[in-house]
Amino acid sequence: MTTAPPPAPLAERGRRGLTAPLTAALVSAAVLLGTWWFFVTTRLGQLIDDAALTGADFGRITLSQVMQPILDVVSVPFVAGAVLAAVVIAVVQRRWSIAGAAALLLVGANVTTQVLKVSLDRPDLGVTLALSNSLPSGHTTVAASVAATALLIAPHRWRGPVAIGGAAYAAATGLATMVGGWHRPSDVVAAFAVAAFWYFIIEAARSVRRRSLPRGYRGAPPANALTLLSAVAAATGLVGVGIGVFTALNVPVETRGGEVLAYVGSCFSVIAASSVATLAMLAMRPHHRAESAGS
Fold first, then answer.
1. Dist CA 282 CA 276 (whole Å)
2. Of 40, 98, 148, 221, which has the maximum CB count within 10 A?
3. How far, CA to CA in Å, does 231 sit from each of 67, 98, 165, 225, 275?
4. What contacts 212, CB < 8 A, 6 or more positions away?
5. 174-217: per-residue pLDDT in tens?
């Protein structure tokens, strides 16, 4: 009969748990910077982005009636309420570190978006008349950070449904900003990257000091939710990328059909981006199995 190897020292377990979330945070930052660089600072990127923005007025009157209530929810009181609710839920579960992490995620993500919005420039490349920077989308950042916070505080048995609902809510908010003509697709994708970055940074910080998994987080990530999000991300991503490549090869988009096609492709891309970000967050924990009961 063989005996189980002794548990790894705390420092070693912390380093193992740090690698995945820190790498994911760096990837999120790279996605943010890459999205800004291509769609804001290059002529081709501006052409594709603005073709989608112009095409968004297709069916706007009908779609706005459905989407506007989603945007009306987002406000400063809504963010404050989300912070309070997240802290209260974490405190009730006696998970003190999660309470602070939830508040940090919500505040950090939304402050970052506002700082970036006023700090980044949109150069005049002779493509569009709207030169003010709108990246990242503030409304989408609120929705994505609320969804990420809900996933952060959710017990294991609820992580699957919370992830699916959060991805759908964040994507719907992003699409609503596009339907309303408030934001370009790149603004929405950048907002997802901001929220994901803060989620993974917090996970990295927590992994360093965590001795074992908190109660309710043992076991593998929910397989059904992972499968569903993977399928949605793959299907919408392929369509979105395919249409994006077609648009890039045929710019400038001078026909109405081309603008609508760019808009439809961007909608698929937004859904894919939300699904991928949520999929990564959902799969992030547990980093390892608990070696003793924790709280």
1. 10
2. 148
3. 25, 30, 15, 10, 9
4. 290, 291, 292, 293, 294
5. 999 998 888 999 999 999 999 999 999 999 988 776 554 445 44
Chain segment 212-249, per-residue pLDDT in tens: 444 544 556 788 899 999 999 999 999 999 988 887 77
187 contacts 45 by C-beta, under 8 angstroms:
no
The span from the CA of 149 to the CA of 101, in Å, is: 9
Burial degree of 294 (CB within 10 A; 0-12, 13-18, 19+): middle
The lowest-confidence range among 12-16, 78-82, 98-102 is 12-16
Question: Given the structure tokens 């501006």, which residue do they identify?
Answer: 46
What are the structure tokens assigned to 217, written together?
């987080």
Separation CA 243–CA 237 (nearest Å): 10
Assess contact for 113 and 246: CB atoms under 8 A. Answer: no
Gap between the Cα atoms of 157 and 295, Å rounded: 16
Cis amide linkage into residue 136, ω under 30° from 0? yes
Q: For residue 187, give Cα distances in angstroms to 4, 92, 174, 198.
A: 51, 36, 9, 17
CB atoms within 10 A of CB 92: 9
Distances (CA, A) of 36 to 39, 47, 49, 107: 6, 14, 11, 22
Give me the phi and psi of 114, to 5 degrees please.
Answer: -65, -35
- Residue 274: its pLDDT value, please? 97
- Cβ partners under 8 Å of residue 234, min gap 6: none
Judge if the upstream peptide bond of residue 214 is cis by omega within 30 degrees of 0. no
pLDDT tens readout for residues 99-130: 788 889 999 999 999 999 999 988 988 887 67
